[in-house]
Amino acid sequence: MQRSEPDIRLLFVRIKEGDKEAFNRLFRLKYEALLSFAKNYLGDTGKAGEVVSDLFVWLWLNRAQVAEIDSPDIYLFKSVKNRCLNALRNKNKVVPIDEQPLPVQPSADNTPLSLMEHKELSARLHALIENLPTQQRQVFKMIKESGLSARQTAKILDLSQRTVETHLYKAVKKLEEEIFLYLGYSPRKKQMKKMLAVLW
């Protein structure tokens, strides 16, 4: 679920005043999403963790400046992106595909067969997401997994909002088509969208 920017801005104001609890809360709210984002660039969880931790250390040491940041969510993701790109430039590495598992939320029908089918479909959908073109995969994960808006994603990736929305549309359309093929039949569109919403 997407968290509202005003809440994050308030945390930034409190951090500027030296509030350690506000800093810890920001860390708990954003660490996992930033780590997943960093892994898209670096592949390695350990290196991604170093980048994100380094950003939080920098934020605390430079807390006098953070209250001036207008869009904290965008600032955090852009900072991680820039640090990852610097790390890649320094090591002259190719960006590998991230291997974050897709969260599984079984339906109310918890029979062993339904759970097995859900697990199978979830694994299939995860594999399909990983095989999307790079930009589509990145946009899809930022919006559907990290909870960012299309506008925020566009600013972070230096793309137009329209381009981001197009990438998301193409990604969802491709996933729907592949799931249709995998199931062997074509459920009604509404049912399909509901299924995808549960799985991501």
List key phrases describing it.
single chain; 200 residues; mainly alpha; Rna Polymerase Sigma Factor, Chain: A; Arc Repressor Mutant, subunit A; 10 helices; 74% helix; 0% strand
In words, what does this structure look like?
The protein is mainly α and 200 residues long. The protein is built from ten helices and no strands. It has two domains: 87 residues, Rna Polymerase Sigma Factor, Chain: A (Orthogonal Bundle); 88 residues, Winged helix-like DNA-binding domain superfamily/Winged helix DNA-binding domain (Arc Repressor Mutant, subunit A, Orthogonal Bundle). The chain is elongated. The chain starts with a helix and ends with a helix. About 10% of the residues have low confidence.
Summarize the structure.
The chain has 200 residues and is mainly alpha-helical. Helix content is 74%, strand content 0%. It has two domains: 5-91, Rna Polymerase Sigma Factor, Chain: A; 112-199, Winged helix-like DNA-binding domain superfamily/Winged helix DNA-binding domain (Arc Repressor Mutant, subunit A).
